[in-house]
Amino acid sequence: MVIRSAGLLIYRRVSGDIEVLLVHPGGPFWARKDEAAWSIPKGLVEAGEDELAAAIRETAEELDIAVNGKFTPLGEYRQPGGKIVIAWSIEADPVLDVNAIQSSEFQMEWPPRSGRVKSFPEVDHAGWFSLPDATIKLLKGQRPMLPDLLTHLERAARSY
Questions:
Q1: In degrees rounded to 5, what are phi and psi of residue 90?
Q2: What is the model's pTM?
Q3: Rounded to whole angstroms, how far apart are CA atoms 153 and 131?
């Protein structure tokens, strides 16, 4: 069975440009990685759970913020490892402070085979990125979300 995750591509408009909110995963594996290491806030869809509800729940867990508004489906994106990420876009308040996020934590044995269990934040930091910068920062399998967001925004602008 294919693993399915759901997440939100949160964007804002700043001086006529689009910026997207990306999160950097916590834990020792990602500590020294930057390019192609960032993600949209997302997580696993539980059995029987509505996918949009999972995306909203996971975003709340990773950022400690409630995201409300009009969610627009972007699509399903197969990741290099085979997992499917289902994404929605939503426009955020332009002043959303990424420095104020409070991520939930996970535990793992660290260092490996040490017998010691340490806690790490699911997200160690978040940031707003221009689309060109986001293309560099995002995990390879999530990069197609960016042109899909632009297509959605262009369609929405034409319908007004």
A1: -155, 140
A2: 0.91
A3: 13
Q: Which helix (H) or strand (E) holds 115?
A: none
Query: pLDDT, tens digit, for every residue of 67-126?
Result: 889 999 999 999 999 999 999 999 987 667 788 778 888 898 988 889 999 989 888 999
Among candidate residues 65, 73, 66, the one with its CA nearest the CA of residue 89: 73
d(CA 54, CA 6): 6
Are 85 and 100 in contact by the 8 Å Cβ rule? The answer is no
98 φ, ψ to 5°? -70, -15
Entry field: residues in the chain: 160
Cβ-proximal residues to 36 (8 Å cutoff; 6+ apart), any chain: 136, 137, 138, 139, 140
DSSP assignment letter at 38: B
| C-alpha span between 85 and 43 (Å, rounded) | 9
